[in-house]
Amino acid sequence: MKGNLYLIILLLSLVGFKSSSVRTISGTVRDQLDGSPLPGVSVRVEGTTIGASTDTKGHYSLKIPSNEVNLVFSFIGYETLKVKPGKTDRLNVTLKQSKSELKEVVIVGYGTQRKQDVTGAVAAAPTAAMQAKVSGIAIRGQNNQVYTRHILIPDHNTESYKEITENGFQNPKDQALSTFAVDVDGASYTNLRRFINNGQLPPKDAVRVEEMINYFKYDLEGPKDDKPVAIHTELSSAPWNAQHQLLRIGLKAKEVKTEKLPASNLVFLIDVSGSMSPENRLPLVKTSLKMLVDQLRDKDQVAIVTYAGYVTLALKSTPGSQKAEIKNAIDALGSGGSTAGGAGLKMAYQVARENFKKEGNNRIIMATDGDFNVGASSDKDMEDLIVQERESGVNISVLGFGMGNLKDSKMETIADKGRGNYAYIDNITEARKAMVTEFGGTLFTLAKDVKIQVEFNPGKVQAYRLIGYENRLMAKEDFNNDKKIGGDIGVGHTVTALYEIIPVGVTSDFTGNVDPLKYQKSEKKPDAAISEEVATIKFRYKDPHSDKSRLEQVVQEDKPISFQSTSADFRFASAVAEFGMLLRNSEFKQASSFDKLISRAKGARGKDDDGYRAEFVRLAESAAMLSKGMELAKDSD
Q1: Would you say the C-alpha torsion 109, 132, 207, 576 has a positive or negative sign?
Q2: Are the C-beta atoms of 290 and 330 separated by less than 8 Å?
Q3: Pairing of strands 361-368, 395-400
Q4: 306 and 314 in contact (C-beta within 8 Å)?
Q5: Residue 363: helix, strand or coil by DSSP?
Q6: Lowest mean pLDDT: which of 77-86, 370-379, 435-444, 563-572?
Q7: What is the pLDDT of residues 463-519, one digit of tens each?
Q8: Under a CB-based contact definition with an 8 Å cutoff, are residues 317 and 82 in contact?
Q9: Is residue 425 a contact partner of residue 400, using CB atoms and an 8 Å limit?
C-alpha cells in the first residue's frame, strides 16, 4: 500500500512538471534608439517551427516548450537578438539598428531597395488599403540621419499561390482519356504544415493534394527487369462515399546505390537578398546545403552562384573532395539588397554548361523565398527563361524557404518547367529529409518526362475524377508527343495518383445531364464492348539522356476489394487525400470528416521509421481543432 502511494505521488509530480513546462510568454519589441514599437518582427523559438510576429504596437505572444530555449528576434535592418527567457512570462526587448544595413536601405512602399537603386525620393499619399498599414517607425542611419519617417507595414502576408480550379467528374463517353504529368514534389505538404503549426489553416490554393500524398513514401515493389519504373494499381471503395470507387495508381522507381550513381555537376544558386536575412531563411539555407555537401563524392563538383542586387560567382566549380573549401564559401555568405533572380538563373545555367558532365547529373539547386524584384521577375518571365534554358541538359531543383513573402507560384513554375522538383524547407528536420534521407531521389533523375494516360471503360465507369494534379494536366495529344515534357522521377521515388470513380448504375448528383441539341442529332454512343476492365493505364517515360519515350501499360479489371482488405498505403493515401479536400473545403468532399480520416491514418501508419505518418496524424488533429474553432467563430458572428 505504501509503495502504491509513492507511485501515485511520483506520477502526479511528473504530470505537474509536464503541464508547467509549456507556457505562454509575451512582450513588446522596441527600437533601441528611440523606443518606438517595431511591428513585423519575427519572434521564433530557436531550432523549431514555433514562432510569431509582433503586431502594429510591437506586441507578441507565443507558447514556449521550456525555460531553457532561446527566443530569436529578427527584423530587416536590425541586428538579430537571441535571448533565453528564463522563468519570466513577460519579456520586453529592444533591437539595435544594423549600421551596415541601415545606411544603405531606403523604404519604398511594401518592400526595400538598395539606396543606389533609388534615383530619387517621392512622397505619395497612401491609398485607402495602405493607410491601415502606416506605422510611425523612424529609420535612421549614421549621424542619426532620418531616411524616412514612415514605412508601410502590411497587415497580411504577401505570399502568392497559383490559383487551382479543382478537377471535376468527367463522363468517359465524352472524355475517355485523362492525361497528366507525374509530380514528386512535396512542397505543399510542408508548407501547409507550417501554417497549421503556427495556428492557422492554409489558403486553399496552397493545398495541392497530389503533393500532400507524394510527400510520403509507399511500400511498392520496384521493377524486376531493366526498366526504371514499375507500375501498380489497387481498386476499392471510396471512404468518403461507399457507393463510389477509389483507384490508386502507384509508380516505383528503381533503387540505385549512391556509389553507382553518375558524377554530379552541381551549381548552388543562393538568394542572398535582404528578404533572406531571418533565421529561417539564409541561416537555414547554409545548414541545409552543408548537409548536402557531406553527401558528395570525390567525383562530384559544386559551384556557388549568389544573387541579390547583382550576381556573383562565389565559388568556382570545386571537387566534392574539398568539402571544407565548399563549406567555408557557404559560411561566408551574407544577406542584403534587392533580388535579381532572373539574372541569377542565367548565370547558374551558364556555369552549369561550362562544367557539363556528359552522361552525368547536371543540376542547379536553387535556394530562395522566390521574391524576385529586379529584372525578369514574373511567373511568365521565369517560365520563358526556364523553357529556353532546359534544353541544355541541366535540370533544376528548387528549395523554398521563409514565410510571409513566399512566392510559391514562382518556385513551382521554375521546378515544373525546368525538369526538376520543388521542396519547401521549414526546419532542420525537413532539410535532413531532402538533403540526406532522400538524397538520390532529390538529385538523380531516373526517368524523365513521365506522363500517365488513363482510358476509362464507359461500360463500367459512369464518371471519374482525378484527385489533384490540377497544375499538371495535359491535352490527350500531348501524351504521344515527345516534345511535350512531363514530370521527372528520381532514384527510389514513389508516385501515387488517385481517381474517384462513379460506377455505372450508381445515382449521383455529380453526373448531371444535358438538354438535347437543337441543331444536330444527339446520337447515342454505343457502350463499350462487354469487358471486365475498368480502365487501361498507360505511362510514358524517357531515359535521362534520351529524347525518345518508351510506353508501358497495365489493365485494371473490375475486381474491387473490400476497403478493409486494401494495403496500409492505400488507406493512408486516402486519408491524406481526404485531409486535402477538407482543407480546400472541396465541393467533392462528400462525407469526409477529420475524425474518420484521423482514425484511418492511425491504423495505416505501418512501419513509419521516420515518424512522418505519426506526424501527419498530429497535424490532422491540430487542423481539426482549428477548423472547429473557425466554425464556432462564424456561429458567434
Answers
A1: positive
A2: yes
A3: parallel
A4: yes
A5: strand
A6: 370-379
A7: 999 999 999 999 999 999 999 999 999 999 999 999 999 999 999 989 877 787 888
A8: no
A9: yes
* Whole-angstrom distance, CA of residue 197 vs CA of residue 209: 19
Contact 423, 442 (CB under 8 A): yes
CA–CA separation, 63 and 32 (whole Å): 25
Cell numbers found for residue 397: 531543383
- Owner of C-alpha cell 533609388: 118
Report the C-alpha gap between 22 and 43 in whole angstroms: 17
Helix (H) or strand (E) holding 53: strand 51-53
Query: What does the alpha-carbon distance between residue 173 and residue 206 come to, in Å, rounded to a whole number?
Result: 33
Count CB neighbours of 268 within 10 A.
25
- Pairing state of beta strands 550-557 and 533-542? antiparallel
Residue 76 has a pLDDT of: 67
* Alpha-carbon separation of residue 242 from 245, 414, 499, 585, 591 (angstroms): 7, 39, 14, 20, 10
Q: pLDDT, tens digit, for every residue of 391-405? A: 888 999 999 998 877
Q: Is 80 exceeded by the pLDDT of residue 366? A: yes
pLDDT at 120 over 60: no
What phi and psi, each to the nearest 5 degrees, are found at residue 388? -70, -35
With b for 16 or more beta-carbon neighbours within 10 A and e for fewer, the 500-514 pattern comes to bbbbeeeeeebeeee
The Cα 378–Cα 373 span in angstroms is 9
Look up cell 464492348; give the residue: 529
Pairing mode, if any, of strands 81-83 and 71-74? antiparallel
Check if the beta carbon of residue 414 is closer than 8 Å to that of residue 400: no
- Report how far residue 337's alpha carbon sits from residue 274's, in angstroms, rounded to the nearest whole number: 5
Angular region, 210: left φ>0, alpha ψ -120 to 50, beta rest: alpha
Distance separating alpha carbons of residues 559 and 569, to the nearest angstrom: 19
pTM: 0.75
What's the pLDDT at 114? 39
